[in-house]
From TrEMBL:
One example GO MF annotation: methionine-tRNA ligase activity
Catalytic activity: tRNA(Met) + L-methionine + ATP = L-methionyl-tRNA(Met) + AMP + diphosphate
InterPro entries assigned to the protein according to its UniProt record, in alphabetical order: Anticodon_Met (IPR041872), Met-tRNA_synth_2 (IPR023457), Methionyl/Leucyl_tRNA_Synth (IPR015413), MetRS_core (IPR033911), Rossmann-like_a/b/a_fold (IPR014729), tRNAsynth_Ia_anticodon-bd (IPR009080)
A cellular component term, taken from the record's GO annotations: mitochondrion
Top EC class of this enzyme: ligase
Membership in a protein family: Belongs to the class-I aminoacyl-tRNA synthetase family.
Protein's recorded name: Methionine--tRNA ligase, mitochondrial
Record domain Methionyl/Leucyl tRNA synthetase: where: 3-250
Amino acid sequence: CDSIYPNKYKGWYCVSEESFLLEHQIRPDEKNEGQYVSIESNQPVEWVEEQNYMFKLSNYINDVAHWLDKNEDVVKPKKFYNQLRNMCSEIENDISVSRPKARVHWGIPVPDDDTQTIYVWLDALMNYLTVSGYPDFHTWPPHIQILGKDILKFHGIYWPAFLIAAGLEPPKSFLVHSHWTVDGVKMSKSVGNVVDPMSKLSDFTSCGLRYFLLREGTNHSDSNYSETKAKNILNAELANTLGNLLNRCLSKSINPDNVNPLVNRECYEVMFTKEPVLTELIENCQTLHEDVKLHYSEFNFYKGVDSIILVLHLANKFIDTTKPWTLRKENKIEELNLVLGVTFEVLRICGIGLQPIVPKLADKLLTRLGIPTNERLWDNMRFSDNDMFNDRHKLNDEKIILYEKIK
C-alpha cells in the first residue's frame, strides 16, 4: 500500500490510551519528579523511539478537512465539530500504525513482518468495514456513527483518512456523546465509583433506567449519575406525573364505564375560551409533535422528554382546576366528558412520543387506552380534537401500574 511505509518513530507514548501524544498533550507528573502524564487521562507517558510502519496522514489531512468543511452538521454537537476542526489544523506529521511485537505481543501481526503488530486503532476501526460486509456491502457509508468524546480524534480524523486512502467514503455523520460522572466525580475503578447498569435493573427496572439515562444524559456536557436523583425523577415523572394522570382518568368514581367519552364541541369551545389552563394545554399539545420530532432528530432526547413532561404537568393542572370528581357529583356530564376526553388525548400523544424512550411502558399505556398498534406511528402523535368530537370507545379493562413508585 503506497500510504503505509516503514520508518523510525519517536515520541511520547501513553500505554493506557494506546496512543502517541504531542508535547502540548502532556504535562509534568506532580507526584513523580521527571515523569510526565497525559493531560486528558492523567495516565503516565513514556518517551519511545522504535521502528514502526507509518500511515501518510499528511497526504490525506486536507481531504479530511474538506470533508468537515463542506458540512458542519457532519459532527454533532457543534462543540465537538469545532474541537475536531481544530485538531485537524494542528496535524502535521504522519502517524504510526504498528507497534513492535516485543512490546505489544498480543496485537494482530503485520502481514509479511512478524516483528510488528497492527496498531489497535487501525485494527479496531477496520471492524466497522468487516461487520458491514466489506468488500460486498451495499450499505456504506453509514448514516451515523455514535462515539464517546474521548475517542473523537480516532474516529473523526484517522478513520476518515483511512477510508479515503482506501477509496471509500467517510461516514455521513457522527454523534459524539459526553460521559457520566457519579456525584460529580469521574468514574474510575481505582476510586471504586463505577456504576454497573445491570445491577441497577432491580432497583429501577430497565424502563426506569432507560428513562433516567435518556432524560438526564446530554451529549454536549458530562452528566451526573446520582441514586437519589434517579429515584426522585422516576417517582416524580413516571409514577406521579404520568402514572397518576392515567389513574385519575380511570378512577371508577369519575369514569365508572371505563370509556374514552365523546366530547361535546360546543362545551369544548366554551371551556377553551374561559379556562386559561385548557388553552395553554391545547396550544402545547398542538406543537408537541413538531417539538419532539425536532429534539429527537437532533439527538437531544432530554429536550423531547422535557416537552412531553410539560404537557403532562399541564394536563394534571387541568384536572386540578376542573375537578372532575366535583363535576361527577354535580352531574355535569358534558363537562366531565370534556375533561376525560382531553386528558385521554394528551395521554395518547404523549404515549406515542415516549415510545423511543421507554417502549415497554409506552406500550402498556397505549394498550390500556385501546390504541391499536397500527395507530402508534409518529404521524399519529398529532393532537386531534376532531377524534374527541367523533369517537367514543371502550378502554381496555386490564388493571395496570405504569411505573411502581420506588420506596
